[in-house]
Every structure is written in structure tokens, then in C-alpha cells.
Write a structure and sequence with these properties.
81 residues, alpha+beta, Alpha-Beta Plaits, four-stranded antiparallel sheet, 2 helices
Amino acid sequence: MNSRVSVVSIIIKDEEAAGKVNELLHEFRQYVVGRMGIPYREKRVSIISVVIDAPGDVTSSLSGKLGMLEGVSAKTLTAKV
């Protein structure tokens, strides 16, 4: 399978969703290269950037599952490397 490097940007607007986001990231942990989380307290949101190296269908699955969570926005940028 062709692997691609992607950055998944996640904005958590509902604190209650943070646990579910972490569960999903744990489920896809074998593809995670690294992650960075920033609590933006003034705006009451959390921002997470996750770098993954995975086939396109895996990346789409993660992004889709994140986007279906209430109070969570997710966008993915992918490059074929």
C-alpha cells in the first residue's frame, strides 16, 4: 500500500469531546509520527496537530471519525512522499 504523510489539524470546541479524540488517536497510534497540542484558554478551545504516515484510506477514516464528533473540527493536508 502507498503510504502518505499527512497532518491532521483538530480543533476541539467542546471539552467533553477531548477524551473521544484521544481514544481515536490511540486507536490509530501505529500511524502517528508525532503530535502537538495547544490549549488556547482565551478562546476556550484546544488545538492538536497530528502527523501521520498511513495509506489514504486510513487517513480518511481517522479524519472522518474525528469530524463526526460533536464539538470537533478536523482537516487534513496530505503529501505523497
